[in-house]
């Protein structure tokens, strides 16, 4: 399959950036947003173009299509890149599942959160019986911030290594050929458990819970990676990272440490003797990112509900202790007055209840 046209679903930071990047690299690109968030599309249309600013220079593009009509968006697209926050996967699945054609490749493009499984769960609930070609990446391909009202993107990083798995995993080789025409840095993962466990956001953002007072007091003037990652809060991050790696080992994966992975992807400098927290504080990528602006931001809500809650659920099923992840789920729930075990991602919600490590692997193979 030659990928000439790409439909990008989700007009947030990642979606706007991907639209400009892929158009600049010669693809025909349509950008779609849900009708209830159509003001973003209107702002982009008013500007007429998207300008990307990065260290290598500045470029501007005119997207082929900006729309809130899903059928118009995916028409003639070989690949559909679902570039949305993890919490929005179900919303986009309900819109896309009924209209996508079986020969179109769907790539869930966000922080790994079992998105392909969740998409198919929604399709099943809707009574749709299609043979979807679907897979997911482990993380967003960019370090970026978009400003639709200005038609402008600040692009601080093109991620140097991405992992991809199809669901089921037997389709990975076939779909990889299409995925690599979008991002040539993609490596095959063993399955979607592998992509999920190489998502570093639950570890990176968990220490926000220790900065809750500062976040509220700052009223929007908080820089987490420069202020909130310290020689002590890094201990929490390392503990969560150790639990993630233990989960991976029990599932049959030899995962890299968060530090090594961030160096390879381009987020941190390769300086083995520099303290981990200092690498975050001075990162050419992270140090440019302001926020979170509120305690109930994605830094906590998304990464507890779609990350740490699943760490705890998975650990319980396969016999891997996750006391720190579970503690953050509990404390975060108290802080935000939410029951993340009820609202978050669990094995039961994926239809994988009562399975051991082998059963869970077989279920996605």
Largest sheet: 8 strands, mixed
Helix/strand order, N-terminal first: EHEHEEEHEHEHEEEEHEHHHHHHHHHHHH
Strand content: 15-25%
Overall shape: it is globular
CATH class of the largest domain: Alpha Beta
CATH architecture level-2 label of the largest domain: 3-Layer(aba) Sandwich
- Fraction of residues in H or I helices: 40-55%
- Major beta sheet, strand line-up: 5-2-1-6-7-8-11-12
Number of helices: 18
Low-confidence stretches: none
Helix/strand-derived category reads alpha/beta
**Domain tally:** 2
**Mean pLDDT rating:** 96
Gyration radius (Cα, Å) is 20 Å
Task: Please characterize this protein's 3D structure.
With 365 residues, this protein is an alpha/beta fold. It has 2 domains: 5-197, NAD(P)-binding Rossmann-like Domain (Rossmann fold), CATH 3.40.50.720; 201-360, N-(1-d-carboxylethyl)-l-norvaline Dehydrogenase, domain 2, CATH 1.10.1040.10. The protein is 44% helix and 16% strand. It is built from 18 helices and 12 strands. It has helices at residues 13-24, 38-47, 70-74, 89-96, 115-125, 172-179, 192-197, 201-205, 212-218, 224-228, 233-250, 258-265, 276-281, 298-318, 323-336, 340-343, 347-350, 357-363, and strands at 5-9, 28-32, 50-54, 57-61, 65-67, 79-82, 105-108, 133-137, 142-147, 152-158, 162-166, 186-188. It has an 8-stranded mixed sheet. Strands 4-3-10-9 form a 4-stranded mixed sheet, covered by helices on one side.
